[in-house]
TrEMBL record:
It comes from Cellulomonas terrae. Transmembrane segments: none annotated. One of its GO terms (biological process) is cell adhesion involved in single-species biofilm formation. One of its GO terms (molecular function) is diguanylate cyclase activity. Residues 234-363 form the GGDEF domain. It holds the Pfam family GGDEF. This is GGDEF domain-containing protein. InterPro entries: Diguanylate_Cyclase, GAF, GAF-like_dom_sf, GGDEF_dom, Nucleotide_cyclase, Rev_trsase/Diguanyl_cyclase. One of its GO terms (cellular component) is plasma membrane.
Amino acid sequence: MMGDVTRRGSAAPGARADSRSAAGIVGVRALALAAHRLDRCRSIDEVAHVATSTGVEVLDAKHVAFCRIDQDTCRTVVVEPPPVAPRAVWMVRASYRADDRPALRALIRDRASWVAHARTVHDEPTVPDDPDAGDPVEVDTLRELDAATALATPLVVNGSVWGQLYAVRGRPGPPFRVDDIARAEVLAALVAGAVARVDLEAQVRHLVADDPLTGLANRRIADAEAEAALESGHETCIVMCDVDGLKRVNDELGHDTGDDLLRSVADVLGRASAALPGSTAARIGGDEFCLVTVGRRRSEVADVMAATIAEFPLPHGAAISYGIASTAVTGSVSARHLFRQADTAQYKAKRARARALRSLVPAAADPAVTAERVLVAGTAAIVAAQSGVVPRLCAFAAAATETLGGSAWAVLTRRNPAEPPSAVARGGSPAELGVESSTAVVIHDLWQVEIGMSATAATGEVVATSLDALAAVAILGAR
């Protein structure tokens, strides 16, 4: 996990012996302090800043860069202090291929440090083909930067070159020497250990906190963020989301496509979260997602959700239904209650959307098709219901109302045929304004079932007969 230190006698070409004991003492102290600071780092960015600031002090450098090497390409992550010269800024932002940089290729292959010098100890230009000057490409780079000398040390993590520390000294400045390389390699070893630890911690956090399919936070993190948001005292909103059409996509196109659809939903929620700083997007499970915001007005959250969903529609005709709950409306409540309120709002939005879509569909040409669908849905609901007349009639009424595109349903009973019925259960939600609907009434013995129907639903004797038959099955089968 630690970087390899160049052994005595194997110093990089061009390095000379040094005996600056005072600088060495300062370097040891700085390295000891760096070890403590690196131990407290919790991100690669923090490690990079400690590495570069320590490198400037330990190596008496003008600039030190913390670089990532991936697939033989090197890019700069952090430079301390940040350069201001336009040419230097451009070079820092560029990436470099090992095929174009022989010194980088050797560093990756041999896991060994290198030095290069554009100026001598007397601040005179090094001569071409000077073996002590180092790689010509690196020497030319130093001349472009008007720098005197450079040093690069690999960061070896888990046996592979993960990156490098790159240091330069300006003019006039003495060339990097053997002792500088030794200090750089000790620092690189400390930094590589910190990188390995931070990377491992990040992997553990990912396993514990992230949903493996979408990369969003999981339910545990969403709950924790909601609790923290409520404790802050700021307005807290919870957005509960559901995917309309996932089952159809899974059935018709396969579960791999369904997984892709869930990842698309995660992308939409991620974009909404990015537009609401401080929020957390999470996958609760299955096709349920949520967004937790803190310090954001409900109107702002609603606007962002509406705009994001409109700008990034889901593939395969799927869509997102969502509901929002806010402490500005509910007052001081628990996180569980706020989630429940948002879930209720989401359910109403989902049903309203489904009814709106069904209202746009013309009535079925053949009422027999509608009757068959009612029988299939109603029978399945009755079989799955709990025992007892009321649960079975409620299941039948809900399934029939859903199939016929209605809004609300009710189950009523009377003591005797002469009395008016009284409701024992109701379900669904009131019809939306402007959406035409009707009600089918089924009476069997002392029971009465009211089933909501869309104005465009197919009707007729065959549909009425199927409803009567299902009511009889629900009542007689419960006895």
